[in-house]
Amino acid sequence: MQAANIESKLPGFGTTIFTVMTQLANQHKAINLSQGFPDFDGPQLLRDRVSWHMNQGHNQYSPLPGMPALREAIAAKVATLYGAHVDPESQIAVTPGATEALACAIGVTIHAGDEAIIIDPAYDTYDPVIRLNGGMPVHLSMTPDFRIPWDQIEAAIRPQTRLLILNSPHNPSGSAWQEEDIVSLRRVLAGRNIHVLADEVYEHILFDGQEHLGLLRYPDLAARSFVVSSFGKTYHATGWRVGYCIAPAPLMEEFLRIHQFVNFSTNTPMQLGIADFLRDCPEHHEELGAFYQPKRDLFNHLLGDTRFTFTPSAGTYFQLADYSAISDMPDTEFARWLTVEHGVAAVPVSVFYANPPAQQKVRFCFAKDDDTLREAASRLARI
Question: Which CATH number fits domain 44-283: 3.90.25.10, 3.40.640.10, 3.30.470.10, 1.20.1440.170?
Answer without folding.
Answer: 3.40.640.10
